[in-house]
Amino acid sequence: MSSLLFPVAKRATLKATLQTKLLKRAAKAEEPLSLILQNAGLTYDDLVYERSKIGAWAGGDPFTLERLRLPENGIPVASFFTGCGGMDLGLEAAGFSLAAAFEINELFCSTLRHNRPNWQVFGPPTHSGDISKFEDIACTLHKVIPGAFDGLFVGGPPCQPFSIASNQRFAKWGDNFKRTGFAHEKNGNLLFDFVRLIVRFKPRAFIIENVPGLRDLDGGEQLSAAIKKLEKAGYTVEQPFVLDASHFGIAQQRQRLFVVGNRLGLPFTRPEPAASWVGAGSVLGNGMPHAPNDETREHKAESVLRYMRLDYGERDQLGRVDRLDPHLPSKTVIAGGTKGGGRSHLHPEIPRTLSVRESARLQTFPDDYVFLGPTARQFTQVGNAVPPVLAAQLGISVLRSYFQ
């Protein structure tokens, strides 16, 4: 440890000692910790770990959309299963123009319309946005884009049936643990609905994204069947590949599966990984006052007493949350279930879980991108998204491979 860091660590330890007395008093008094902190002139962001600020991120800066941004190229994109727009923000930065976005969740549509009022968003309350209603979607598309569409189709069919993270919430001996995949009554068939739209409208190129579990399901038979349908329709389809966001200048470990192809027979060159990783400390400061979606959970004193004893990278077994290490990429930001947000990780220097805004920073959303709805649903939107910065780098590769 650098000698310059000892005074900081010493001050943090002293503050932690006083903090422990306050927390124990709060636990004994059975009063809300938020009220006790307020009466002491403090907030949750004033809390510290017993071992805080032992070291700070001193490496390079993370990639941002502005760093990657290219001039507008006029190439249109039709987006499906758009969510809150992570993939689309990245493609926008790569110079593409969104012609249409289809999303079935009304709250997600509200977030899209709030942040990008110029985008044509087809979803509740004015449209179903339901890709399983093929003819309705096709009819809408015919009004927006021409046949033999000389642009890009992009979509990530809902991945819950294939997700390992979602299964880990259930006991291994229970029925819910199995990755039901294409046996799922509705979501498991949406991949083929998307493929059918590609075949009908024949975009110059397409991107399919999902979790890596899609590639391995049923020994790869289902994904192979989808690819064969695309090849039969005249597409050159690349071998499915997985990109880890932490290899591309993003402060988060997050793997996504991509399948790309084009109808011109052109080869595809994947995006080049960054020279080195960036740690979570590169985007997580000591709180984020006045930023949208920056509200933090009001933990009980007993929880903070447990959290503050953790070192970098350690897990609180009772709450099943991990303290992030500022020197390493964050663990994957979790979306959570359909009725609420997932467990967020612990801030590296403040013994509390991350806010929606902090999670969005790990996901590379700009600070001015606002997520609407209750906090739990904001977490769902952020956690379901493709990191925009990863999408931008993939979009640039698609642009250079298929459109130039």
Please provide a brief summary of the model:
The chain has 404 residues and is of the alpha/beta class.
Fold and architecture overview:
By secondary structure, this protein is an alpha/beta fold. The protein has 2 domains: 3-56 and 292-365 and 375-383, Alpha-Beta Complex (DNA Methylase, Chain A, domain 2); 65-276 and 387-402, Vaccinia Virus protein VP39 (Rossmann fold). It has helices at residues 6-29, 33-39, 65-68, 86-93, 106-115, 134-144, 164-167, 190-201, 213-216, 221-232, 301-307, 356-362, 375-384, 388-402, and strands spanning 76-80, 97-102, 121-122, 152-155, 205-210, 236-237, 241-244, 255-262, 315-316, 321-322.
The first-level CATH class of the largest domain is given as Alpha Beta
Percent strand = 5-15%
Helical fraction equals 25-40%
Characterize the largest beta sheet: strand count, sense, and whether it forms a barrel: 8 strands, mixed
Q: Which structural category do the helix and sheet elements fall into?
A: alpha/beta
**Second-tier CATH architecture of the largest domain:** 3-Layer(aba) Sandwich
The overall average pLDDT, rounded, is 88
| Count of domains | 2
Instruction: Return residue spans where pLDDT drops below 50 for at least 5 consecutive residues.
Output: 1-6, 162-181, 337-341
Shape: elongated
Order of helices and strands: HHHEHEHEHEHHEHHEEEHEEHHH
Query: Count of helices?
Result: 14
Radius of gyration: 23 Å
